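Molecular record:
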Amino acid sequence: MRMEEPSNRNVDPDRSTKYYKAREYQRLVGILSIIFTAIATGLVYWWMSGDGDGFIGGVNLSTHTFSLHPICMTLGLLFSCTTALLSYRILPIPKQYSKFIHALFHSLAIVCIVTGITCVFLAHNFPDSYSSGSYAANLYTMHSFIGLTAIVMYGQNFILGIYFFYSLRNSNDKECEKCKKSYQPLHEFLGYASFIFAVMAIESGLVELLTKKKCYWSPTSVNWNPAATYSELTLGCRVGNAAGIFVMLGAIFAIFTFVKLPKEGSLKE
């Protein structure tokens, strides 16, 4: 299906064409996506910092270093990445400002990624900084491999984006312009692909932590109505589950905003 081309009427030439290619309700959904990812980040922080059954136990650089890992990765790979990817589609501002927001939040994501990875390696290799007080293995689970894939794609796309769209921005060379246009589809693909892998990594990481905190119970009878017994979970476990739900909602809404919808009236019965 072909993308709807924006009409020449009421089109601000200074805005990104992606803004006009997104439907009005897609922009609203995109705003909700950013709100949901912000809520997810807040819930992850609450879960990490809370003290009690089901909570992780605190955020402290000296004794709970690991707790900074989920917070940084959710803030970077979810909230910041989503905001950066949607900046061209949902904000009615000139393209140069959208580009600045795009670069700013991707840069914030890189800072969060580096901090988050550093914290998990410090926590696993220095027992005094890990709440369990013991060494832990690194890069041995599917969560690790999925996360590593997301980080590699995100990092290389960030570096290549700086080269093609910022280092060459003042060049009038036609060959440079051709290179930027040729790289654009790959840039967008890597951006969307790394976002999907980032969501997978975050969700799998939350599942690992929920399992380690023993967020389950063994029913003594048939369980036809799970909602009635959900309160058996501790508050910390419910906060962890809520974080995962908002991660999913944010991702689904963001992906819907990315979708190129057909022109109205173009679908035949």
About this structure: The mean pLDDT is 88.
